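TA notes. Do not distribute before section.
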Amino acid sequence: QIGDMADTLHWVCYCTPGPDSPLNFSSYSLVSGNDCAHRDPQDWVMEVQQYSSTIWTVVDVRKDVMWSERHETLTFHLSEPVTKVEKFRLRITKSRSEKPNEFQLTQ
């Protein structure tokens, strides 16, 4: 799922397989895109939603992150692991670009 929010350039949401497969979440990795460094996310918020909850909980906030090369993987560790996660949401609040709504990541 991809979308827009008022205070966010874009967000991406991933759902886990289901309540029979709860995930524990302690770190995540993001990979810079293949072409333009100015489209790299710079500031974001990582949120989770635990099983049987409708509330998004902020688990990580990053500011002024810089990738040094294309296709570079950066790994971010949470200060406290989270258990029984059903959904993850990455809210990108700023990219290095001066153009609104311009960002990229890759797999």
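Switch to the second chain here.
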Amino acid sequence: PRLLLRRRLSFCPERQPLPAYFPLLLDSSDSSVHYDRTIKLALYARAGLPRYWIIDVKDRSVTEFTQPWQAGYRSERRLRQGDRLALGEAGSPLEGLTIDVAELIS
């Protein structure tokens, strides 16, 4: 399953929304973690999607990727139960909102 958060397209001056209009892409993986961490990650980074989360159901963790560049992300961090994730970065419509990792992995 995949979840893509996007800003309202009425705020998008272009006909085709740019990656910046999609502040977060989230994939939930049980058997496709390798594919998500390689093929999909490279595609999303090249497209400029600012944040990508992979929920690893078997490992009970969430890996957050930020700062896209070329075929990857400059920043990667793995979080587990007890950690919180920010939904938005500074200046984002989601700024200040967080979610408990336990809610994502349960």
